[in-house]
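How a chain folds remains the central question behind the approach discussed here. For one protein, we set the task of working out the structure tokens from the amino acid sequence alone. The sequence in question and its structure tokens are set out directly beneath this paragraph.

_____
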Amino acid sequence: MNLPPPSLSRAVRRLALAALLAGLSACVAFERAPVAELRCDPDLAGTWTVKAGGNLSKTVRIDARCHTEDWPGMDDRPVALDLTGFAIGQDRYIALTPEQAQRAIGADAGSLAGTAPKGSVFLVLYRLTPGGLDAWLPDSQRALDAIARGGLAGRRLQDRFALVQGTPEQLRDTLAQRLNLLYDTDRKAMVFQRAKAARQDSP
């Protein structure tokens, strides 16, 4: 069997990673954070194996302050992110600024920060599972359809970019009562599995 040259292997890995991060490119911004203060969820601390389709997986370490230095960026270059957020009922959210979201998906400089209004955020929904957590990004087409029908307050930004508008209280109510207008939780999620601790043999 002929093995692919190293450069081809790296190219395949970059394409696979791009597919993993494609979930983070959902262009749905919220006009403002739904809460006054973002907090660190202590359940996020630890080492995770991140999976999002295919056989690709990446290791992400999150410290006790919800900071990570090795979010899987493009071209195998890790990205530093603060993964603070909030909870509404049993659902939890990570809130990313446009600049953070831009770094997370490896977007061109200014592509999100230059389009999303100042103070807006991108929200990652996640739910804890026995072995880790499942995470989803808003479905941009679902949000745009709801805005067009009048089911959501908001407007279109560029071709496939949705901005959900409202006061913090209104945005909290939207997430609590009309989550299905934004997130398709029936679809396969990005899966975070807790990495197993390395085995230590007895002397």
Notes: The first helix runs from residue 6 to 21. The helical segments are 6-21, 98-105, 140-149, 168-177. The longest strand covers residues 122-129. The CA atoms of residues 2 and 100 lie 41 Å apart.
